[in-house]
């Protein structure tokens, strides 16, 4: 490897391998050393070793095994140096007394075993542990499970790299202080903990699907990462209906991505989208995941209900064919399972579409004094739409302008201002 180009290609290959293998690597190391922060450091050490050696020797046939063997050997050295965890050191030492070919041969069996999948699931539950703040859970999940670099997370959420680094450090410290065990919670705790995991995945997806701030309407990379994480969780917990419900919801929503922006990146609203641009493969996958969630039985959860709502849109050949009465009923069910002002606002939209703008406006006005919606830009946006449909153009225009002043997304602000401008009286 003598040329700069070849060295650059090797580094890109190593980074790609590490992105694929890092979650498994950190998960396996956490089981060994019992500390997620230390596990990540060991994984990073293994990557540095790869960067030093692979450009000369080439990428091994089983790069995951090589990285794990290297990290595990470093873990042995570290534990011995610190004279801690004598029992684990002895166990690891026995594992280390093997032929050099182990990293490339025998270890492949371990990498492919169910134990690695169990480790991944444990890592997901640690990264999304409720003892952490929501921001910390999102950041740590993207870092440990998603394998994103600090700069990638910072760019995705429009924060500085030092901010992301601080969140990661504090999250690891909090987990260590709380002595969070590296385990999948028992059945009695699983529902509560699983809801935290699914919440984090959907927060990541939503930030990609409709960015809260910045110049871009969407951040597709975040949607893709959330889908990957969601599919992983559903695969690790195949009997959990809500895991499949969330995957169904994200698959169907992601199917609209190509139609959600115009030629210059401007937002295109759902009812105005060219449905021929919707991804039929993602819709089929979403509908299949929804069917799986429903087949598993039990109470239909909030993600499966939202997926059922998304399915109503996906099954409609045109906007006019949308089954709005069914959507309104599904929102009623969602409000019972997961009550919130935002759900009620969405229900009001469905009511307005199903039974007329007057009824929809009445439902929206009931939410006007809701403190949780005081600075929520979609409240005046929905109200403006209903007023415009009722022919109350001047009032609608004011609502769109108010919504524009509240949003932090530049693309959405431009859309709302344009809708207000179109309602300006002639000659004004």
How would you characterize this protein structure?
The protein has helices at about 5-35, 35-55, 65-80, 85-95, 105-110, 115-125, 135-145, 150-155, 160-175, 185-210, 220-235, 240-255, 280-295, 300-315, 325-335, 340-355, 355-365, 380-390, 395-405, 410-420, and strands at about 215, 410. With about 425 residues, the chain is mainly α. Among the domains are: about 5-115, no CATH class; about 185-305, no CATH class; about 375-428, no CATH class. The longest helix has 30 residues, at about 5-35. The radius of gyration is 25 Å and the shape is elongated. The N and C termini lie far apart (about 70 Å). Keywords: Sigma factor, Transcription, Transcription regulation. This is RNA polymerase sigma factor. InterPro entries: DUF6596, RNA_pol_sigma-70_dom, RNA_pol_sigma70_r2, RNA_pol_sigma70_r4_t2, RNA_pol_sigma_r2, RNA_pol_sigma_r3/r4-like, WH-like_DNA-bd_sf.
Please summarize what this structure is.
By secondary structure, the protein is mostly helical. It is 70% helix and 1% strand.
